[in-house]
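Protocol step 4 of 6: structure prediction from sequence.
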Amino acid sequence: MAFDVDGTLLRGENTCECIARNIGRSSEMAAFERLRAREDIADGRHAMLEWCRPYSQATLIEYLRDLRLAPGVRSGFARLKSQGVKIALVSITWQFAVEWLAADLGADYAVGTGWSPENGIARF
């Protein structure tokens, strides 16, 4: 069973908003969230990469501890797992964030947008 992360498993801030708030980029993130054109969103992703570049992924993951799960996510995942259901988290957010949340929730798979300071963005 596959679940979207932001807006499905989370309440309040999404993963990128949480990171942006912690690195002082909330206003830029709010502008990004209003983008609708595919090209503008791609350009915004590159800008977000530049914001994150000075930080290690481990540091950014620490900020994700502020995320608020939707009610029942943990118990629902535990019930699915007890029945042998494989769980995947899928998101256009950063791969490292999806992997962290998947590990925290016990999901089997994580799919997201990859990035590295050297190689830029790797879309799935």
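Step 5 (inspection) to follow. Helices lie at 5-9, 15-22, 26-33, 38-52, 57-63, 73-82, 95-105.
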